[in-house]
Amino acid sequence: xxxxxxxxxxxxxxxxxxxxxxxxxxxxxxxxxxxxxxxxxxxxxxxxxxxxxxxxxxxxxxxxxxxxxxxxxxxxxxxxxxxxxxxxxxxxxxxxxxxxxxxxxxxxxxxxxxxxxxxxxxxxxxxxxxxxxxxxxxxxxxxxxxxxxxxxxxxxxxxxxxxxxxxxxxxxxxxxxxxxxxxxxxxxxxxxxxxxxxxxxxxxxxxxxxxxxxxxxxxxxxxxxxxxxxxxxxxxxxxxxxxxxxxxxx
Length: 250
Prior knowledge:
Elements: H1 2-5, H2 23-45, H3 49-62, E1 68-72, H4 78-82, E2 90-95, H5 98-110, E3 117-121, E4 134-140, H6 149-159, E5 160-171, H7 179-199, H8 204-214, H9 219-227, E6 231-238, E7 243-249
Parallel strand pairs: 1-2, 1-4, 2-3, 4-5
Antiparallel strand pairs: 5-7, 6-7
Helix pairs in contact: 2-5, 2-7, 7-8
């Protein structure tokens, strides 16, 4: 399993290349450090477009009328909260960064959503759920951070019921002029500068563009999903290809 992961360049991109910690530990530490500013930066640096991306993702989920949804790498719970539009009975979000989860729990309490949404600590490669226990599994901008990409995807497949739906949002690379050139300039120079200024974290918003550039996208990622047990994997570019909406079925 991990031998396949080793072939994916994204697994070798680390928040801190000089650290002796595993990628998983580094990612958890990074997100714990920026948790307080994460939501603001997420919406500000994406110019608010991220909200529309989540709506499109949840529209895919809603199509199968799920009763139980799992949101992997849930962070502060934005996609889990958006998933209420699919009218499920239960939503569970898991993440390895406890401070991100704390921010998410406060939002859920403030919105009086605790009866439907639960956020808990969980490792994407070894989740504490029975096989075939969710109607839909979602993940927004998290698979890029997996230490072992295919191990995490296979675990998502395991907990999804047969016929259930996988929905993933991930950053990608615009291909057409001039969006491609503007995007690269913004991602490489503007975003890291603003991110560092607000979050006070020297690497978090440098790691972001590096990890995006290394991540397998489009047909390549769909092939990986198929190899991990999913069927009907599709890639749908959004907003000139800045992000991609992936769907698949177990």
